[in-house]
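Supplementary Methods. Inverse-folding protocol.

Structures were first reduced to a discrete structure-token string of length 157. This string, shown here, constituted the complete conditioning input.
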């Protein structure tokens, strides 16, 4: 199982917006998502997310201000090499202006108009909980198309 991170950068000033990136290559290509990536050997999830946010969007987040929002497991029975265990983070402070990278094309979206139809199928189930300030532990299983959620469980803690 791949250990990874995911960070949602939030601007809570009215009316509120969320930074999502359109994945340009690799796993999830074409989908909108938060920023993040694989935990490298010897790296903590916190260190990973700081590095990945900088690499993917050119902005800096401080480990001291990141909030852990949960842990989500993604299972792909048709291709278990795609299974992920993902540490979720929220950032409400950052420095710099988001810019496109080789990996992601970031853009701001209104929090009340998140384009779930352009994201992974699971996001609509758990992301609203996280954006409401709750921590989640969730497990999602995908169909043979590796796109559609077939079963899921979610606990808040």
């Amino acid at each position: 199982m791949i250990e990874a991170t995911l960070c949602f950068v939030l601007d809570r000033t009215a009316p509120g917006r969320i930074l999502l990136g359109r994945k340009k290559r690799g796993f999830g290509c074409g989908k909108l998502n938060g920023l993040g990536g694989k935990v490298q050997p010897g790296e903590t999830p916190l260190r990973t997310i700081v590095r990945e946010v900088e690499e993917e969007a050119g902005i800096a987040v401080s480990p001291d201000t990141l909030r852990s929002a949960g842990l989500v497991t993604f299972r792909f029975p048709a291709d278990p090499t795609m299974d992920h265990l993902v540490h979720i983070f929220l950032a409400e402070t950052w420095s710099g202006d988001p810019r496109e990278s080789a990996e992601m094309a970031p853009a701001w979206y209104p929090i009340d108009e998140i384009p779930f139809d352009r994201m992974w199928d699971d996001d609509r189930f758990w992301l609203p909980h996280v954006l409401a300030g709750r921590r989640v532990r969730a497990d999602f299983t995908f169909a043979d198309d590796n796109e559609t959620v077939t079963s899921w469980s979610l606990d808040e803690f």
